[in-house]
UniProtKB/TrEMBL annotation:
<feature type="transmembrane region" description="Helical">
    <location>
        <begin position="84"/>
        <end position="108"/>
    </location>
</feature>
<dbReference type="InterPro" id="IPR000515">
    <property type="entry name" value="MetI-like"/>
</dbReference>
<dbReference type="InterPro" id="IPR051322">
    <property type="entry name" value="AA_ABC_Transporter_Permease"/>
</dbReference>
<feature type="transmembrane region" description="Helical">
    <location>
        <begin position="55"/>
        <end position="78"/>
    </location>
</feature>
<keyword id="KW-1133">Transmembrane helix</keyword>
<keyword id="KW-0813">Transport</keyword>
<dbReference type="Pfam" id="PF00528">
    <property type="entry name" value="BPD_transp_1"/>
</dbReference>
<feature type="domain" description="ABC transmembrane type-1">
    <location>
        <begin position="16"/>
        <end position="210"/>
    </location>
</feature>
<feature type="transmembrane region" description="Helical">
    <location>
        <begin position="20"/>
        <end position="43"/>
    </location>
</feature>
<dbReference type="InterPro" id="IPR035906">
    <property type="entry name" value="MetI-like_sf"/>
</dbReference>
<protein>
    <submittedName>
        <fullName>D-methionine transport system permease protein</fullName>
    </submittedName>
</protein>
<comment type="similarity">
    <text>Belongs to the binding-protein-dependent transport system permease family.</text>
</comment>
<keyword id="KW-1003">Cell membrane</keyword>
<keyword id="KW-0472">Membrane</keyword>
<keyword id="KW-0812">Transmembrane</keyword>
<feature type="transmembrane region" description="Helical">
    <location>
        <begin position="191"/>
        <end position="210"/>
    </location>
</feature>
<feature type="transmembrane region" description="Helical">
    <location>
        <begin position="149"/>
        <end position="171"/>
    </location>
</feature>
Length: 220
């Protein structure tokens, strides 16, 4: 039995809202993890502000390990952990757990890349004026790289949109779940097309917002 797309539209809008919640909440939580990890990777590396080879290698290994696991495998592998934290492995909230673990290390690498692009001369100037390491991090590193970090977080958010769609394979909710349940399993082509179009629109909106915000933050 074919589903009437117009009558099904409220369910599509609900799935869109679920996707946005998954992406935005996961982005915030992953940034809270990835930002300090990215900073630590920069300041503890060789010739860094707080050079510490042991700490750098530990963080580097953890980040590389999580980044090497495909999301769909990570999603299934941590189902017991997700159930322990959330109480269930199905639904929008449950999908946030693997999304955060997947994107946190990725954001750490993006932040690391942004901070490494900061002009070394600016850092040396701050040091010559007696700035402490923490002052250099918060008053030099972060302000100087903020525009690039915003662009990189935009990239991460777009990656989360794709990952949230994959979460539909295990009942994660959102547009991915809708596309699989109706578009794939029930051959509802109209619904599949509608979900794809909405995902494209979401990506375009995120990219436009990120580009504009980054441009406004860019230091002349």
């Amino acid at each position: 039995m074919q589903v009437n797309l117009l009558e099904f539209w409220p369910r599509i809008l609900e799935a869109t809202q679920e996707t946005l919640i998954m992406v935005l909440v996961s982005l915030v939580l992953a940034t809270l993890i990835g930002l300090p990890l990215g900073i630590a990777l920069v300041v503890t590396r060789e010739d860094g502000l707080m050079e510490n080879n042991f700490v750098f290698k530990m963080i580097n290994a953890v980040v590389n390990t999580f980044r090497s696991i495909p999301f769909i495998i990570l999603l299934v592998a941590i189902l017991p952990f997700t159930r322990l934290i959330i109480g269930t492995t199905i639904g929008t909230v449950a999908a946030i757990v693997p999304l955060v673990l997947f994107s946190g290390p990725y954001i750490a690498r993006l932040v690391e890349s942004s901070l490494l692009d900061v002009n070394q001369g600016v850092i040396e100037a701050a040091q010559s004026m007696g700035a402490t390491n923490w002052q250099i991090i918060y008053r030099v590193f972060l302000p100087e790289s903020l525009s690039t970090i915003v662009l990189n977080l935009t990239i991460a958010s777009i990656g989360l949109v794709g990952a949230s769609a994959m979460a539909g394979f295990v009942g994660g909710g959102g547009l991915g779940d809708l596309a699989i349940s109706y578009g794939y399993q029930r051959f509802e082509t109209d619904i599949m097309i509608a979900t794809v179009v909405l995902l494209v629109v979401i990506v375009q909106v995120f990219q436009a917002i990120g580009n504009r915000l980054s441009k406004r933050l860019k230091r002349l």
